[in-house]
């Protein structure tokens, strides 16, 4: 799915607004394992994922807690750090070699002033992120480990081949041993 089609899932922007948004995007490449953002750093760029898989996580009590995975054509960002220009509380890293296009916070604000449709697009995307977080919270607290695993497999089956299973287990709040059992027994 191209970025234009992806963005139109949230708000039906015109081709002209899409070009206004993307005409000044710049590209950064990251190697597997490279950190994009670390705790204490303010995320100043919003990334559009062209290639690769990224992961946000934090450490607590010597344990990694995976919060999210991003991959094409999604956005890659620590939302509260970027939106409020405050220090991040967690990491954003690349699980694979990645190519990301980006726009800075200040550039995006200028675009909001130029185009109400671009501003509306990002409001709708923010609403979708909030709804996704609520759904994830509900899944983690109301579904069995097998139901969480199946829901993940329906949403992002390709990640089973691209992401180390210990990270997916963490994301789903499933013990790695139980995840391995589910991976080997639950088929679609």
UniProtKB/TrEMBL annotation:
Annotated ranges, domain Cyclic nucleotide-binding: 9-52
InterPro entries noted in UniProt: cNMP-bd_dom, cNMP-bd_dom_sf, RmlC-like_jellyroll
SUPFAM superfamilies named in the record: cAMP-binding domain-like
PROSITE patterns linked: CNMP_BINDING_3
Name listed for the protein in its UniProt record: Cyclic nucleotide-binding domain-containing protein
Domain of life assignment: Bacteria
């Amino acid at each position: 799915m191209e970025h234009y089609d992806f963005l139109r899932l949230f708000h039906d922007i015109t081709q002209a607004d899409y070009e206004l948004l993307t005409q000044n995007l710049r590209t950064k490449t990251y190697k597997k394992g490279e950190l994009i953002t670390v705790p204490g750093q303010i995320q100043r760029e919003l990334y559009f994922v062209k290639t690769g898989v990224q992961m946000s996580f934090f450490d607590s009590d010597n344990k990694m807690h995976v919060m999210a995975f991003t991959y094409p054509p999604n956005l890659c960002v620590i939302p509260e750090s970027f939106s409020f220009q405050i220090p991040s509380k967690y990491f954003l890293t690349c699980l694979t070699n990645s190519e990301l296009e980006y726009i800075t916070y200040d550039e995006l604000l200028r675009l909001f002033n130029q185009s109400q449709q671009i501003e509306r697009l990002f409001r709708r995307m923010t609403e979708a992120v909030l709804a996704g977080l609520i759904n994830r919270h509900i899944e983690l607290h109301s579904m069995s480990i097998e139901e969480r695993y199946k829901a993940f497999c329906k949403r992002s089956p390709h990640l089973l081949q691209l992401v180390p299973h210990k990270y997916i287990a963490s994301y789903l709040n499933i013990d790695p041993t139980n995840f391995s059992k589910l991976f080997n027994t639950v088929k679609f």
